[in-house]
Amino acid sequence: MSFDKYEDSIRAKRQFEGDRDNRYSPYCDLIYYPSSRDPQLRLAMRVLKPHKPSRILVTTHGWHMSIPPFEYKNTAYNVGYLTIEVDMRGRAFSDGNPDCNGWELLDVIDAVNYVRKHYQDCIIDPDVVYFEGGSGGGGNAYAIVGKFPDFFAAATAMCGITDYAVWYDNDAIGEFQDELDVWIGFPPQADPEAYRSRSGITLAENLRTPLFIAHGETDIRVPVEHARMYMNRVRQLAFNERVSYLELEGVGTREHWGNASEEQMGRMMELSERNRLRNASPIDIPDQGSFIVAGYLITKKFAVVLDSLDKVASVHYDLNKNEFIVTGDRVGGYSIHRWE
Question: Are 334 and 306 in contact (CB under 8 A)?
Answer without folding.
Answer: yes
